[in-house]
Amino acid sequence: MRLTVDGQEREVTPRAGQVLRTLLREAGVTSVKKGCDAGDCGACTVLLDGDPVHSCLVPAHRAEGREVVTAAGLGSPDDPHPVQEAFLAAGGYQCGFCTAGYVVTASALDDAQREDLPRALKGNLCRCTGYRAIRDAIEGVASTEAGALPGRSARPPAGARVVTGREEYTLDGPPPGAGAGPEPGEPRSTGGLLHLAVVTSPHAHARIRAIDARAALGMPGVVAVLTHADAPDTLYSTGRHEHRTDDPADTRMLDDVVRFRGQRVAAVVAESVAAAERARDAVVVDYEPLPAVFDVDAAREPGAPLLHADKPVANGIDGPERNVVAEWHAERGDVAAAEAAADAVVAGTWTTARVSHAALETHATRGWLDAEGRLVLRTSSQVPYLVRDELALLFDRDPATVRVFTARVGGGFGGKQELLTEDLVALAVLRTGRPVQWEFTREEEFRRAPLRHPMRVRVRASGTRAGVLTSLAVEQVMDTGAYGNHGRGVMYHSVHESVAAYRCDNVRVDACSVYTNNPPSGAFRGYGLGQVIFAIESAIDELARELGVDPVAFRRRNVIVPGDPVRVAELEPPSDIAYEGAHGAGQCLDLVEARLEATAGEDAVAAERLPEGWRVGEGVALAMIATIPPRGHRATARVRALDPSDPDDAGAPLYEVEVGTAEFGNGSTTVHAQLAAAALGTTPERIRIRQSDTGLGGYDTGAYGSTGTVVAGTAVHRAATRLAEQLAAGGAREAEADHDGLRRTVAFNVHGVRVAVDPASGEVRVLRSVQAADAGTVLNPEQLRGQVEGGAAQAFGSALTEEVVVRDGAVVNAAFRDYRLPKFGDLPDTEVLFADTSSGLGPLGAKSMSEAPYNPVAPALANAIRDAIGLRPTALPMRRDRIWRLANGIPEPPGVH
Amino acid sequence: MDLIEVGSVRVARTRDDLALGPGEHLLAGGTWLYSEPQRGVTGLVDLTGLGWDPVESLPGGGLRLAATCPIARLHELPAPPSAAALARECADALLMSWKIQAVATVGGNVCMALPAGAMTAFATALDGEAVIWRPDGGERREPVADLVRGPRTTTLRRGEVLRAIDLTGAALGARFAVRQLSLAPRGRSAALLVGRRDADGAVALTITGSTPRPRVLRFASPPEPDALAEAVADAGPWYDDVHGAPDWRAAMTARLAEQLRAELAGESGTTAGPSGAGDVPDAPGSSGADS
C-alpha cells in the first residue's frame, strides 16, 4: 500500500496485525518513538491526515493512502516548527524521548485545548521534567539561550535535533549491515538483524529439569535458542559499579535455577520480533517447583527457603544461609542512656513501596561484530565502560575486543546502571555471528527491570527541651528481591547521609538487605536515601513537636555545620568526605522557611475557597547527599583543537571533547560544553562532544551517583584548561586530564510544602511546593532547575500514587495505565531556590545535584499531612484510600493493593 | 503493539462479512485490542468498513449510537443540555486522552466491560438498549445494564455483534449529575456515579467503577438521605483492583451518591462536589469530574 510520510510518498507492505508505529520505524522513520506500545504514553504520536494519533494503536492497514507527519516532518533544526522552537527555547525536555510525541501533539492543539492543558496533554507522559518546562514551551515562555557560558542557561547541544525528531537514541539510525561496510564499526557478519525474545519463569522459585527447544527451532525464522547450557558459568551481578565486588556475584546469565516470576530462562533468536515471540511459547521447560518466600521476615526465619545458599560468603553475600545479602549493626555513644535521659522519645515504623524508573526509553541493545571481529554493542546504558569490562570478563575476552557505546539515552534514573540486555545480546551475537537486537517491552520493564527497594524503617529519636537531638536509632530492612544487584550499596547508602546529616552523640544503625523470591530491586535516584529520609525526617518532625520546638528550628539546631565530621556510627570520622565551605544546609532551611512564610497569606486566601472539611498543613524536610559515591569514581577527558576547513563558518566546531560519561537527559553534555568553552575562550556551540563510547579509549566509571558534572565535568574542565595553556604556549593541540573523585563533600536539599487534605476522601492537594538546593556554583540555572523539578516530580509520584504491586512474587500492574505515573497537571509547580555556596571539589565550585532533589519530598508531604489532620501517615505511597483510613480511624485491611 | 499471531485482516463491507472464522475477532477502534498481546487472536474483522453512521436520530427524540461511534463524538452529541453534558463528562472520565477518544469507540468500551468503562456508565444512566446482531441474521435487544455482567464479561456470545446503543428521547430529556473519583487526579475511575432525575420526579442512581458491574438504584421519588444510604450500602460487592480498595470504594460511593442526591434535589451548597476546589489557583489534583 502507499502512504505519505513527512511529505514523501512511500510504498510499504504492512503485515496483518501490524501497527503504524512499527511500520514507520521499519521504514526508517525513527522520529516515532516507543515508550509503552500500548497507547498510554504518547511518545509515538504522529499526525494522520492532520489528526494526532498514537501510532502504536493504529492498525497499519488503516493508514493506506493517508498522510503521516512525524516530529521530523513538522520541522528541521534549520527550519523548526514554531512549537519545536518553543520547546527548544523553554528547555521543555530532558532526555527528550517523549519530546517527538509532545511536539506533534502540541502542534495540533486548538485555542480551547491550550486553555485546558491537563486535559489536552494527559495522553503524553514525561518522566524527566515534572511538566513545568513543557507547559512553558506551549505557553511560549523562553528561558534558555544559545552561546551561554557557565552561570547562564545554555541549551543542550542536541536540543535542536531532539525537538525535531532527529536525535538518535539507542535503536534509531540504520541497523548494522545497512551501510556499505565493512569498515570500523560496521558489521562484517552477513545477514540481517536478528531479534531476541526471552522465555520467562512462571514460578517464583524452581529448578529447571530440562528445556526442549526442538519445536521452537523448527519454527519459521528461528535461528537459535540459548539456554543455561550455552551461558558462561561465571557468576556476576547485573548491578554495575567501579568495583565489581561492590555487588554480590549471585547471577548467572541463564541459570538452571530460577528465583523470581519473570526471570529469563532461555533466549529465542529469530529473524523478527514476532518470530522470536511466537517461538518462545514453543520452548518446553520442565520445572521442579521449589518453596518460595516473599517476606523479608519470613525469609530470615530458620527453615525458610534459601535463594543463594549454594554460593559462598566470598561472593559478597553476608549470610547466604539466612537470605541476607548484607547487614550492618553499629552504635556510637549510648542510645539507651540518651533515651533514658531525654525529655522526649519518639518511635515509629515507616514503609515504602516498589517504584518503576519508567524511563520512557526501555532497555535495549543492538549488537554486532565489526570488521576487526570486535564485539560491538550499542545500548541504553548509564555505564558503557562497566558493561564492557564485565562482558569481557564473562566471555573471557580482552576488553580491547569489546566496544560498548550509547547514543542519547532516553532516561535512566539508576535503572540503566544494570547489565540487563547487553549480556544476552552479546551471547547471541557471538553464537550466531549476526547482528542481534533486544528491546524490552514496557511490560518487561515492570516485570524484569529492577525497581526501587521497598523498605521498612524503624526510627527512634530522642531529644531535650533545649532542642537538642540526643539520640537517633535506625533499623532498616529492605527487600532486595531474588538478586542482590545494588542490594549492598543501597543498604549502606540508605543509612549513611540520612543519619549523618545530624550532629548526634548517640547513634545506632541496624540495616539488613534480604533476599526474597520477589522481582529484584536495584539502583534508583537517591540510592536508598529517599526511603530512609522519609522515616527519619518524619521522626525528627514528630520529635520537635513532642519537644515543643519548631521543626525547622530543630533541624537548624541539629544539622551538621561545616567542619563537622560526616559520619554515621564510625568512631573515627572518615577522611574522604568533609562538609566544607558555606553552610548550605542552614541556607536551604532559611530559604524554604522564608518562602513558606511569604506565601502563607496568599495560600490562606486560596484555602478559604476549599470546600468545607478540608484541612491545611505545612511540612518541611531536609536531605543530605554526598557529592560522589565512595571509594573512587573515575573519568578521563580529551580535548583537541580542530582545524575547520572554513574558519569563517561560525557554526563549525573549533574544539572536540571526548568524554566517557553518558547523556540521558541529565544535562552533563551541556555543562561539559560550557566548561570547555569557558576554558578555551569560545562559546559552547563551537565545542563538539563525542561521548560514552569505549571505542574512544579513555575511561569513565559511568553516569551514576550524580557525577556527570563533578567528576566528568572536572576532567573536561581540566583538559580544556590544559589545552588552552598549551595553545597559548604554542604547544600540542590536544590535552588529556582525569579525575578520580576520591575526595567528596556533601550537598543539601530542603523541601517545603503546604497541603490541603480532604479527610472525607483522602485527597491531598499541594497548594505550595518549594525546594532549596545547595548545588554550589550553579553552572546552568535552567537545567539545574529542571533537575530539581524533575526529581521532586518523581518524588511526588512515589509519595502519593506510584507503586508496583507485587503479590506472591508476581507484578500485578505491569502497564502505565495501571501504575499511576504523574501526568501533566497532576503535579504542583515546585519553586526552586539556590543556596549561595561553592565547593572546592567541583568544577568552578559546583556540587552535584541530580539525585538529591528526590529525597526530601515525601517526608515534607507527610509532615504537612500530619500538620493538617493531626495524624501521621507512615506508608508510601500516601494514597487517597490510606489517608482516608488514617483520618477516619479505619484500620488498614490486610492485603490491600 | 503488533499483534503477532494475526495472519489476516478482513475489512467488513456487509453484514455477511461478520461471520467469524476460527481465531477471528472483531476490530472496532482497536485502541484496546492493539494495546495488549492478544493470545489466540489469529484474524481480525474490521467493523469500521461497514460505514455505520456514528449518531442517528430515532423517532421521539431518541438517538442511536453506532457501536463504532468514536467516543470523541460524545463531546458534540445532539442532545438536550443535561444529557449532552453527561456525555462529555463520561467521555472525559475515561483514562484515555482526547487523541484516543477520537479513535476508541462507544461500543468497544461497553464490550470491554471494565468497571471503569465510562461508556457503560453513560449508556446505563440513559437506560440505553444494546442492539445486537445475532449470527443467524436476527437481532436481539438488551439493556446495557444487563449486557455487562462483570469485569471483561458480557452476555455477548461468539458471533454476536453489538450494532448500536439506542437511547430514548425521554431518557435524554432527564436531568443528570456526575461524580467521579480515582486514586490519582486524572486516573482510572474507582467510582463513577451518575444521578438522573426524570420529569416525573423518579430518580435513578447508576453506580459504576466501584462495583464489578453497573448497579442501578431506582427511586420513584427523590430519596431521603437515609434511604439512599441504605440502598447504596447494599449495592456491593465492591470491586477490588489496583485502582481502589473495596472499603474505600464503598465509602466513596456512599459519599458521592449523597452528593448526587443533594444536587438533584436542588439543595444548595453541595453542588461543588469532591472537586469543587478546582477553582483554587495552581491547585493540582482536581479529582476528575471537572477535568
Radius of gyration of chain A: 27 Å
User: What is the β-strand count of chain A?
Assistant: 32
- What percent of residues of chain A are in strands? 15-25%
Secondary structure: helix percent of chain B: 10-25%
Q: What is the count of β-strands of chain B?
A: 14
Largest sheet of chain B: 5 strands, antiparallel
Q: What's the average pLDDT of chain A? A: 96
Shape descriptor of chain B: globular
**Beginning-to-end CA distance, first to last residue of chain A:** 47 Å
What is the succession of H and E elements of chain B? EEEEEHHHHEEHEEEHEEEEHH
Specify the oligomeric state. heterodimer
So how many helices of chain B? 8
Determine the structural class of chain B based on helices, strands and strand pairing: alpha+beta
Distance between the termini of chain B: 28 Å
Protein architecture, described:
The complex is a heterodimer of chains A (about 900) and B (about 290). Chain A is α+β, with helices and mostly antiparallel strands and about 900 residues long. Helix content of chain A is about 25%, strand content about 20%. Chain A has a seven-stranded mixed beta sheet with strand order 8-10-6-17-14-15-16, with helices on both faces. A five-stranded mixed beta sheet of chain A has the order 2-1-5-3-4. Chain A has a five-stranded mixed beta sheet with strand order 12-21-20-19-13, with helices on both faces. Residues about 180-190 of chain A have low confidence and may be disordered. Chain B has about 290 residues and is of the alpha+beta class. Chain B is about 25% helix and about 25% strand. Chain B contains eight helices and 14 strands. In chain B, the strands form four sheets. In chain B, strands 4-5-10-6-7 form a five-stranded antiparallel beta sheet. A four-stranded antiparallel beta sheet of chain B has the order 11-12-13-14, with helices on both faces. The two termini of chain B are about 30 Å apart.
